[in-house]
Design a protein that fits this description.
By secondary structure, the chain is an alpha/beta fold. It is built from 13 helices and 10 strands. The strands form 2 sheets. The chain has a 7-stranded mixed sheet with strand order 6-5-4-7-8-10-9, with helices on both faces. Strands 1-3-2 form a 3-stranded antiparallel sheet. Helix 1 packs across helix 5. The relative contact order is 0.10.
């Protein structure tokens, strides 16, 4: 049996340079540095046929300088941020003159596509805003919750963040300016559309969202040093399994933060909002974290400002991966 020769750095470099050495593909790379886009988006921007755009994207993806992600029947593309092709993509983009009229026209068309995306996302949000507003009135302000999440990461420098059940992408917006890489996972395509619009508006090119299964994350072990599960577990049949899967992709010394409701008796949340669990006792989540191999750190409760029978208490749990690596020891903030 003849073994296939492994690609060398020389081969990878040559492949990447060949892939980018064409006017349309160079324009595609420049656009995908600005935003995650579909073939349809790129067809509208460049005014070329869908088969032609798809063929160019295939070559760029095979060379590793752009990434492709499936989302239901759609595929999204963006400039590669990881892997062997990422440094080459960076180098090519640095050499490109962004003030060139060709790139400027493409960015103008991109702005129009983004505006249409944001309009569609806002329309979806308006249709469903009443549902979220109803829930917000039952518990402490979002600002207080976000402050508690930040507090849970005190002493931890965050380089890469994974937001599970990202929803509108708010957690990514919160930490995005301070991190190198942020990824949000959600099953709902409409919510992902809204999250992308929010990230675009915030100019957070280092953050992206993906459609995915919380029980089977598309990442290898030790991928992120911070993970957030924000108001997600009460929708799931098996919250313990979701925590175990999150722990799998947490790096040594990394921190996992869970935000959810304390136990309550608001049955209408099952019927009208698809909640499967009516909150969680502090020791229940603590036990799940420990069973996932994490070291429990802290638990905090945030009671609603207005006391009533329908008021909800928000709980925040934090745990860390107890594994220690020498390379990570210098990353903890005193």
């Amino acid at each position: 049996m003849v073994r296939k020769k492994a690609a060398s750095n020389f081969d990878e470099l040559l492949s990447g340079l060949k892939a980018a050495a064409e006017d349309t593909r160079l324009r595609l790379l420049a656009l995908l540095d600005q935003a995650e886009l579909t073939v349809s988006d790129l067809t509208d921007i460049l005014g070329q046929s869908q088969p032609r755009i798809s063929r160019h994207l295939k070559l760029l993806a095979e060379a590793g300088i752009v990434e492709r992600f499936r989302e239901a029947s759609w595929a999204f593309y963006r400039r590669a941020n990881d892997g062997a092709g990422a440094p080459l993509a960076d180098a090519i983009l640095k050499l490109a003159d962004s003030s060139d009229p060709v790139f400027e026209r493409d960015r103008e068309r991109l702005a129009q596509v983004r505006a249409a995306r944001q309009a569609a996302a806002q329309n979806y949000f308006r249709k469903h805003a009443a549902r979220w507003d109803e829930l917000r009135k039952l518990h402490v302000s979002e600002a207080a919750v976000e402050a508690a999440v930040r507090e849970a990461f005190t002493g931890k420098r965050i380089d890469s963040l994974l937001d599970l059940g990202t929803g509108t992408g708010r957690i990514l917006e919160l930490f995005g300016p301070e991190i190198s890489r942020g990824v949000g996972i959600d099953l709902n395509p409409e919510m992902l559309q809204f999250a992308r619009a929010n990230l675009d508006r915030a100019g957070l090119k280092n953050c992206s969202v993906r459609q995915g299964d919380l029980f089977n994350l598309p990442f290898p072990r030790d991928s992120f040093d911070a993970i957030v599960l924000h108001q997600v577990l009460h929708y799931l049949d098996d919250g313990a399994r979701a925590i175990r899967e999150a722990a799998r992709v947490l790096r040594p010394g990394g921190r996992l933060v869970v935000v959810d409701f304390a136990p309550h008796k608001l049955e209408f949340l099952r019927d009208e909002h698809a909640h499967r669990r009516l909150g969680f006792a502090p020791d229940a989540i603590e036990q799940w974290l420990k069973e996932a191999g994490l070291e429990f750190d802290r638990h905090r409760e945030l009671a609603a400002e207005k006391k009533s029978d329908s008021a909800l208490t928000v709980s925040v749990w934090a745990a860390r991966d107890p594994r220690i690596m020498l390379a990570e020891q210098g990353r903890e903030v005193a």
